[in-house]
């Protein structure tokens, strides 16, 4: 499958993309790596696309309550006129 493995442990599926480290990481490694010190906790992270589980999310679709990459967003929301009406907002990076 296209599911990305965590760049940290190489065991779990990645759930987050860290822009600063340019790394795809699982939730466990995110806690370890980004909880390690003050500087690491400032790293910008975004969720990974819930559809392809392969690329960083670019938008949140409010109707589907889903984080999607640009490619999946286009595929899903161009499928029909109703889907095209879904309200989407840009993903906001998070820091913990």
Automatic annotation (TrEMBL):
Residues 1-48, 44-91 form the B box-type domain. It is found in: Nucleus. Its main location: nucleus. InterPro entries: B-box_zinc_finger (IPR051979), CONSTANS-like_Bbox1 (IPR049808), Znf_B-box (IPR000315). One of its GO terms (molecular function) is zinc ion binding. Pfam families: zf-B_box (PF00643). Keywords: Metal-binding, Nucleus, Repeat, Transcription, Transcription regulation, Zinc, Zinc-finger. It comes from the Eukaryota. GO terms for cellular component: nucleus. This is B box-type domain-containing protein. It comes from Selaginella moellendorffii (Spikemoss).
